[in-house]
Amino acid sequence: MRILGIDPGLRNTGFGVIDQDGAKLSYVASGTIVVPPEQELYQRLRDISSHLYEVIDNYKPDVAVIEKVFLNTNPQSTLLLGHARGAAMLSLAQKGLAVSEYTALQIKKAVVGRGHAQKEQVQAMVQYILKLNALPAPDPADALACAICHAHAAPLSQRLQAHHKSTLTVKHRIRNRRLIG
Known about the structure:
By secondary structure, the protein is α/β, with parallel strands linked by helices. About 55% of the residues lie in helices and about 20% in strands. Strand 2 and strand 3 (about 25-35) form a beta hairpin.
């Protein structure tokens, strides 16, 4: 499975692509979409979206993962981050990708083992897990961490969903027997 991770931002949007083959994770690509801050908001959102289309077309991921917005002390910053995240999610959806979301705490816990890890710790663990020759830049490292988190969480989530569906099917059969019998 090929996983595209996105760390949304209005100035810098990180992306990271990994392949998962069972428990083995392999680095494919990563980078930063840099948007000039002097542009109007709609132009910046358009640039994020068009660059993500290129990433998706080039690397053809099977699924996408994006970091959930956290509540910032500055409501204006949170709103602007939400715009960038929305542009990214729309791009992913328009390309037909299923999108999973994880909080920064979930991502850090999955990659570093601590939900309140520092950026440098995340970068170092991403480098270690993916066997990279150099420390990745902060935004691509966060995006790769999103993808790693999903690679670790998705199998458990799929098993839980399958179990939930089978439980509902059994309950449905029991309820139908009572109505018929």
